[in-house]
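Illustration: DNA (cytosine-5-)-methyltransferase.
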Amino acid sequence: MILDLFAGPGGWSTALHVLGARDVGLEWDQWACKTRAAAGQLTIRTDVAMYPTWPWVGRVRGLIASPPCQAWSMAGKRLGLRDQPLVHQAVSDLAAGRDTREKLLTSCRDERSLLAAEPMRYLYALHQAGEPEWFLAEEVPDVLPLWRQYAAILRTWGFSAWAGILNAADFGVPQTRRRAILIASRVRNAEPPPPTHARVAEPESLFGPGRARWVSMAQALGWGADDRPVPTVCAGGGPGGGPEPFPSGSRKTLTDARDRGAWVPRPGAVVLQSRREGSGWAERHGTRENRPATAPAPTFTAEAHRWSWSLRSNSQANATTRRLDEPAGTLFFGNRSNECVWVGEPAVVGQHEEQPAPESIRITAQEAGVLQTFPAAYPWAGNKSQMFSQVGNAVPPLLAGHLLAPHLEAHLDPDDFTLAA
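Result:
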């Protein structure tokens, strides 16, 4: 079997399903477990740090681990960095068969820090039976020194191992999410998968096929792209709700949408025509504060102004803001139920018209999930805060698929990771 520690809402599991495999996930968060159950994924609700290792010995082909990142993330207090020497000590002790976690935990400033050492407890137990065949781990970039320690230990056990930083956008994820990755294998050379995308498209050469341009948020969400005709599957031809502008399953293009008064592209931005309705607009369509997390974005129609839309990653002054024709920044969600908002700026204003104020519209959990490469219909469970927390902590399934495919000896077709469908 494939054992998935800290399985979360199913990023690795979704990738495994696409590749024709399944895992058993260990997960503590009840809402992530409910999401996994609704998605048909095998799950044991448990504390990974308390669960015994002996039931798995002799049964595990592949081991996956994505420990909680809150102690290390730049979005938090980052007490994991101060606890890092203790975590390194725990890994070293566990690799030698000594369990000093309880003693070390009393000195940790964040009790979650030691969770990054848990995979070594499982690896040590499995190693006694010559398992696993392969091991994959993912965490925020600051955990890279720890993954390098793991790699050094695993090499002494007969593994080939690689640790480094990968950018999810280089693998077709519409998000410039950088993560520390550890790849280890007993049966093949451990190396990162070849990137399929780049910031700027690369032509085919004598050295092999070129790379496509990074996938934009507009492409992933099916909202149309920049000035290229693409299938339009979202309501109103843009970030809208209500009925689709074209029959379900139709393959109309940006040109068709423009003819119907939906999207109006211009070089360098994605814009749409929007109706301003005074103070009643917010009540009818929902604002940043009252729009349900599961609702589609409000419908925009063609009457007065054209709007250029961007995604702002949080409410801080230095928040990352990306245009709709770019990948999103790293999605993370803190104490607020949702810190990501679509910001609309008027792109074209009539000669005698007053400059409208920018609009701010809350991103939905479904939109955020698609930007993580989960299917649009993925069954997120819980309230707004619980859903957004799951999305932000998940491994992008498309990135996971690139990492998993060589070890499963499976062919990965990115088209199998349906986004806006």
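Reading the tokens back as a structure: The radius of gyration is 23 Å.
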